[in-house]
Write a structure and sequence with these properties.
16% strand, 16 helices, binds acetamide, two-stranded antiparallel ribbon, alpha/beta, 39% helix, eight-stranded parallel β-barrel, binds zinc ion
Length: 383
């Protein structure tokens, strides 16, 4: 029962992260997936590579307005956690029965690495920490230096995080640069690979071997199925359920977080003009609640579903108040999905119980979204 927070697109302080952990604990969510690195910022101190945070932890400006806008705020956005701060947060979470699973993105979503260490790109140029959203073509090259840096980074991550699982990203890695790069093309030939997808698979398998050698297990976004899945990888299914179903049928463990049921950065009301700006999708509370992660699987295959997760991507979510608004009450619906047998679920009853929870959230000063209160009044429900 997980919640992911993206602290790359917008940085959240140690105290803000703790507040989100408190809320998770209240609803018995027990895995905090911490998205610590991305094109727009590197947020974890790595002692061996100080430039990752010194350069990679800071961007000059931030895209504002719609996803395709050309408008930037012109303000520096920066921040990172020291290893001591991270240990403090891990300890804080553990006292609340929450395990923190760190994510270090590779080989895509890595432009903040290239800003600090441009020699790890296919083409050595100047790169900046990205100021805009979307999928970026500047990715890590498959040269040995990339593997070396990642091994050193992961070694420090193993020292800090006790989690059995380490998320290595793997999503949205365009192959444009690899297809033009002499080193990457030589690697494809030398390793007898068919194409760039198999090269990505090689990349992830090599990372998995390293992680497994340190008695940990990798989780990757569902793109890690492309070009052949690493033997022990857990798949996090986000583009829908197909990847998770395919992985479960191959006897791989799966975390379900299909965007149409679990992306908490989507709008929660159809009345978009009266909502804070969000990414394009639409995910109302009743859809979250309706989610059944094992519906399309046999009971044997269903055993591979480790659980479900809600994702808070923060391109458009710059403050903890806004994060609370997007996550609550939808994360409570997800908690109930994770805890309940399908036949026990009853949305009307859930909303009635939410009205009671709303008093609890009010007393904690949580900025939850209140659409459900109106739905209860309109339907003349149990209130
Ligand atoms: C993702 O939303 N790119 C995993
Ligand atoms: Zn290359």
């Amino acid at each position: 029962r997980g919640i992911m927070l993206d602290v790359s697109r917008h940085f959240y302080t140690k105290e803000e992260v703790k507040e989100l952990l408190d809320l998770m604990a209240l609803y018995k969510m027990n895995k905090f997936h911490w998205h610590l690195t991305d094109d727009q910022g590197w947020r974890i101190e790595i002692k061996k590579y100080p430039l990752l945070t010194k350069i990679g932890g800071k961007r000059d400006s931030t895209q504002i307005g719609n996803w395709n806008s050309n408008i930037y705020d012109g303000k520096v956005h920066e921040g990172f956690y020291t290893q001591e701060e991270i240990k403090e947060i891990i300890d804080y979470a553990a006292k609340r029965q929450i395990t923190i699973v760190p994510e270090i993105e590779m080989p895509g979503h890595a432009q903040s690495i290239l800003a600090a260490y441009p020699q790890l790109a296919c083409f050595h140029k100047n790169y900046e920490v990205s100021c805009d959203w979307g999928v970026h073509k500047e990715v890590l090259c498959t040269k040995e230096g990339s593997f070396k840096l990642l091994e050193d980074v992961l070694s420090e991550v193993f020292e800090i995080f006790p989690s059995k699982y380490i998320h290595i990203g793997g999503d949205e890695c365009p192959k444009d640069r690899w297809s033009e790069c002499p080193v990457c093309q030589r690697n494809i030939k030398r390793l007898g690979l068919k194409d760039e997808h198999e090269l990505q698979s090689y990349f992830i398998k090599r990372r998995e071997a390293f992680v497994n050698a340190h008695d940990r297990q990798i989780i990757g976004w569902d793109e890690i199925l492309e070009g052949g899945i690493a033997p022990n990888a857990v798949v996090m299914s986000w583009r829908g359920e197909a990847g998770g179903i395919k992985a479960a049928k191959m006897n791989h463990s799966v975390i379900m977080t299909p965007r149409d049921f679990c992306y908490l950065d989507y709008y929660q009301s159809e009345d978009r003009d009266n909502e804070p700006l969000a990414i394009y999708g639409y995910l109302p509370l009743d859809s979250v609640y309706s989610y059944n992660p094992t519906e399309k699987l046999t009971s044997e295959q269903g055993r591979y579903i480790l659980g479900i997760q809600g994702n808070l991507w923060t391109e458009y979510i710059a403050t903890p108040e806004h994060a609370e608004y997007m996550a609550y009450p939808r994360a409570i619906a997800l908690a109930e999905v994770g805890w309940s047998r399908q036949e026990q679920k009853d949305f009307t009853d859930f909303v009635y119980r939410l009205t009671i929870q709303s008093k609890r959230l009010d007393s904690l000063n949580v900025n939850y979204a209140k659409h459900f209160l109106f739905s209860v009044k309109n339907k003349n429900d149990k209130l």
